[in-house]
Structures are given as structure tokens and as C-alpha cells.
Predict the 3D structure of the following.
Amino acid sequence: MGKKRKQKKRNVVRNAKENYERGMDLCLNEDNFDAALKYLLRAAKSGYKPAYGEIGIILYRENNETVKAEKWFRKAEKKNSLFPIAAFEYGLLFYLEKDDWKTGLEYLLRSAEQGCEVAYGYIGTILYLEKNKIYEAIEWFKKAEDANCLLAPGAYYYGLILSLDKNEWRQSLKYFQKSAEEGFVLAYGELGSLLYQEKIDIDEAEKWFKKAEEVGCLSAPDAYEYGMLLIKERGETERGKRYLDKAADDGY
């Protein structure tokens, strides 16, 4: 009887591992997340701990099922199997979905310390926005860039630091351009304003102001700069005044 039980246990473990590996193959090589989730859930139900964090990642990143994802991240943590990428995603869940930047930062730092380079830029962003630790934030943004992992949001906030806090607009331009070109909408107006204020490229500035307006992200300062561009560079006084009025109405 003892041998049979051991053999049965080995079969369960082997099947769980096979389900896990099949799920990861579907996830990583075929982008078939629904099918991957089925296999990973089978593995998890057999107690295969590496599947827990992967399930959390798919539920959060692909399915936007925050509550279910958090349950699996917690299970992974309880079993000491919350690997770096899972800790990163769990940190983002706290920061972006639960508005809990302190807990989010803890998990992001944990993932970064274990080599998750994509966390670097998000750590820099939180340190800048929530703790106003400018120099620490810069260090993390630099680490992200050195690792070729400075994503569009991080590039935008790095640009803001350089522009607003360090008065290094030439450097900030590079990061606003990167962020805007990668589709981070908050960067559109900032890029337009910088291109206009420094008289780098008026046509390009107008293009980015228009893009910011189209996506509903033309802030009051950027609306003001757009209005001045229209008045001074295009001779469109009435149209320009409408943007100045918008900026004033928004408290600028």
C-alpha cells in the first residue's frame, strides 16, 4: 500500500508539472492566455506552487480580475513562491488599482532586489510623486535606463524631474519624446509645450498639442502654450484666445 501511495503521489506531481509547463508554453509562446490559465489552474489544484504567481499575473494583467489575482498572489506569498515578476505585478496592483503606494512600493522594491529590472522605473515614479525623493528617484530612473527598461510612464516622470526640478530642459526633451512616441498620453502636452517654448519645432509642437486635446489630456498650462502658439505663430487670435480662456477656467 505504501508503494502505491508513493507512486500515486509521484504521478500527481508529474502531472501537475506537465500542466504547468504546458500552461507556460501557451502563455509565453502562443499568447493563448485563456488556455494557459486552464492548465495552470490544474497545476495549482494539485498543489504545484510555481503556478500560483503565474495565475495571479494572467488574472491581473490579461483579464483585469484584480480580486481573483490578489487571492493567487497571496497564496504564492504564503507558500514562499512569489517570484520577482509576480511580486512586481502584485506591487502594481496595490499601486494602480488599490491606490496603496506604500504597499506597492514594498513589493516593487522586493522584486527589484531580486533582479526584476522592469520595476526600476515604477520605483522611481513612486519615490518622485509620493515621497518627493528626487535624487533617489533619479537613481532608479537611471538604473531603468541602463537596463533598457525605462518604460513610457517612467520616462515621462523622469522628464518632469529634469524639466521642473533640475531645469535641464534639453535632457527632459529626450524623455518626453520617448514617452509620447510610446503612447503615454500625459507626455503629449508636455512635449508640445517644450517644443514651443524653446522654439525647437513649432509644427511638431502643434501636432502634440492636438494629440493631447484629442485624448482629453490637454492640461491648463499646455492649453495656455497652445493658445500662445496659435496667436503668435499662426495669427489665429480668436482660436488662440479660446485656449487661453480654457487655461484660465482651469485655474492657470
Q: What stands out?
A: The mean pLDDT is 95.
